């Protein structure tokens, strides 16, 4: 079951952050100004991000037995305690990463009238513009987005695949194929880290759904008032983030009730656990809230891939991870149903996962 279409609120020129940036506003439009409780505290020294785990993918694939064992143990620690990790030596040729970054930049610098040819189509969540805007009074993110469905073929909207830049589609195809292989391999090792057969997720997911989103964050004259991307967890199984070269530190994750910046490692990919893996592992591996902040002088580009089960698949905690000491925390549900729920709600931390959570008596009284 594919998610039913939704009808996002249309955003006008005044709400396109690149156009706003060109006008060099001295005052941030009210639509972007966050409530005091939501504003990033940029002046406060942030916790060190060096503890965010790093996985050496080449050691997982072709290391010694001891190296593989060590990396799988590190993967388990990252998935259970952080929900985030960076992957180095991931096997994707750097020219492929450079190509997708190049066409993304070229797309975002196109004139607005050209980008509007690929605007969020009525009844879909694909295209150019602001995502998850469901009401006229909702605060907007200081970000322009461009999203495409990639796999399976029926979720594609061919009219939204740009012909300018000329090699945009080719770059997306090559990049997406490589990232898909990486997701499949990572899920194999994640399964092994849980003591399960390596092919359990591949067999369960069917033809996995894959989508791509490019985010562009222009500099903001008052980064203390806005958010580049609202706090949220991802509805996917895995999310793969490529941070553009020379990026300022914009990604932050919520760890022990503190926002921790994720410092980019050159040529690494950032992976995060999505809601689907949290449900399947009965909460052992957790999806984590994350957000993006802006910079006064530097722009930021990110390319995000979402990898999730087929819409027809029923999802619920795996029997191997439910026992008397760890009772079932989530109900079973159709993944397409959850996808529809996710895209028809604004980004609000982990609130969308309440859709699946089983409430205990203490939580309902």
Automatic annotation (TrEMBL):
Protein's recorded name: Fe2OG dioxygenase domain-containing protein
A Pfam family that the UniProt record links to this protein: DIOX_N
Xref: PROSITE patterns: FE2OG_OXY
Coiled coil: none
Family the entry assigns: Belongs to the iron/ascorbate-dependent oxidoreductase family.
Keywords for the protein's UniProt record, in alphabetical order: Iron, Metal-binding, Oxidoreductase, Vitamin C
Positions of the Fe2OG dioxygenase domain: 207-309
Gene Ontology molecular functions: L-ascorbic acid binding; metal ion binding; oxidoreductase activity
Source species: Malus baccata
């Amino acid at each position: 079951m594919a998610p039913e279409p939704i009808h996002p609120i249309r955003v006008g020129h005044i709400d396109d952050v690149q156009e706003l940036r060109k006008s060099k506003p001295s005052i941030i439009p009210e639509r972007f100004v966050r409530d005091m409780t939501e504003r990033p505290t940029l002046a406060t020294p942030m916790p060190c991000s060096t503890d965010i785990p790093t996985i050496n993918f080449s050691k997982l694939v072709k290391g010694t037995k001891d190296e593989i064992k060590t990396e799988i143990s590190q993967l388990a620690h990252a998935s259970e305690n952080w929900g985030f990790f960076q992957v180095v030596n991931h096997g994707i040729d750097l020219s492929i990463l450079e190509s997708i970054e190049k066409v993304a930049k070229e797309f975002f610098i196109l004139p607005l009238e050209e980008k509007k040819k690929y605007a969020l189509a009525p009844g879909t969540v694909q295209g150019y513009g602001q995502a998850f805007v469901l009401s006229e009074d909702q605060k907007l993110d200081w970000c322009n987005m461009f999203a495409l469905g990639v796999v399976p073929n029926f979720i594609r909207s061919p009219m939204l695949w740009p012909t300018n830049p000329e090699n945009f589609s080719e770059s997306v195809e090559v990049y997406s194929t490589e990232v898909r292989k990486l997701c499949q391999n990572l899920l194999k090792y994640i399964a092994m880290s849980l003591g399960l057969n390596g092919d359990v997720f591949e067999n369960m997911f069917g033809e996995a759904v894959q989508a791509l989103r490019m985010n562009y964050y222009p500099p903001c004259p008052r980064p203390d008032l806005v958010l580049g991307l609202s706090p949220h967890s991802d509805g996917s199984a895995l999310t793969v983030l490529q941070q553009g070269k020379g990026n300022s530190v914009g990604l932050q994750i919520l760890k022990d009730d503190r926002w921790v910046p994720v410092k980019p490692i050159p040529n690494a990919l950032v992976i995060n656990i999505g809601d689907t893996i949290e449900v399947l592992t009965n909460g052992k591996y957790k999806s984590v809230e994350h957000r993006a902040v802006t910079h006064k002088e530097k722009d930021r580009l990110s390319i995000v891939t979402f990898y999730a089960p087929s819409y027809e698949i029923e999802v619920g905690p795996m029997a191997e991870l439910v026992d008397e000491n760890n009772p079932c925390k989530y109900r079973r549900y159709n993944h397409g149903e959850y996808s529809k729920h996710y895209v028809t709600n604004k980004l609000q931390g982990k609130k969308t996962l309440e859709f699946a959570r089983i409430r205990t008596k203490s939580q309902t009284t």
